[in-house]
Amino acid sequence: MPPLRVLQVSDLHAGTVEEPEVEGDLRTLVRESRPELVVVSGDLTHRNTPAQHARAADLLRSLEAPLLVIPGNHDIPRWPPWRFTRTFEEFRRSWPELEPVYRSERLVVCGLNSVRPWKQQGGAIRPAQVEHVREVFANAPEAALRMVAVHHHLLGAPWRTVKRTIAERSRLLGSLVDAGAELIVSGHVHQSAASERREFEVTEGKVRGTTVATAPGLGQPRPKRRGEARGLHLYEVDESSIRVLTYAWAGQQWAQIADRRFPRGLEPLATVG
């Protein structure tokens, strides 16, 4: 059986720069990699206008693959009172569900809405949302990959960013692990990072691995913002491992720049001695 593939794109920021060559080669990458699902982890638009939402929706649907789409902090009105009274109105015209769930025999994905209108950049997840994840995963097929997607990052890249991680990051991460998450993905910081549970938590005995990844932004990096990356993640999953393939825009096409593999299940990738 071929490996399960999931493509993650984040932070499109439609409404900044129109780049047909980027979009055309993205369609090529999707066609060649044939992911079961494309996960879109927020910030579809730059300023939450109807035209920008329509632009992002047209691009995503042109990929001709199943989609799971969640909002980011740029996908709500910038100013009050609309920020509080019409928070997700424009987003829902294209994507009615704020917390979609995807289910198949090989893959179960919970999308979580971490956007809070009273936070300009920060995000949060409530305990009730984690309980929802627990319930969904409890009914998942035994061999299915259990994946969570949020916009605000739980794992920061090891270089410059002024954006703080999601509120109560350690508690949330532990709760999602306990709920059964094997792969937790996010965006928001326009930088790539990937890590495995035992790199951020001391464990003993046989524990199930959990991979945490932050995708770079798909959209055009802002001028004079060195420290922002442009790229996407492709996840390849088999019975024993989760492979994170990172792609970056190389001027004319998407180019693979990293290949990281993490354990899935109870066994490590290898032992010494």
Folded structure, characterized:
With 273 residues, this protein is α/β, with parallel strands linked by helices. Helix 5 (127-138) runs parallel beside helix 6 (169-178). The strands form 2 sheets. It has a 6-stranded mixed sheet with strand order 3-2-1-10-11-12. A 6-stranded mixed sheet has the order 4-5-6-7-9-8. Strand 4 (101-103) and strand 5 (107-111) form a beta hairpin. It is built from 7 helices and 12 strands. The mean pLDDT is 93.
Question: What is the succession of H and E elements?
Answer: EHEHEHHEEHEHEEHEEEE
Q: Please report the distance between the alpha carbons of the first and last residues.
A: 32 Å
What does the main sheet amount to? 6 strands, mixed
Task: Give the neighbour order of strands across the main sheet.
Answer: 3-2-1-10-11-12
Helix and strand topology:
Elements: E1 4-9, H1 20-33, E2 37-41, H2 50-61, E3 67-70, H3 82-85, H4 89-94, E4 101-103, E5 107-111, H5 127-138, E6 145-149, H6 169-178, E7 183-186, E8 193-196, H7 197-200, E9 211-214, E10 231-237, E11 241-249, E12 254-263
Parallel strand pairs: 1-2, 2-3, 5-6, 6-7, 7-9
Antiparallel strand pairs: 1-10, 4-5, 8-9, 10-11, 11-12
Q: Summarize this, please?
A:
The protein is α/β, with parallel strands linked by helices and 273 residues long.
Structure keywords:
alpha/beta, globular, 273 residues, 7 helices
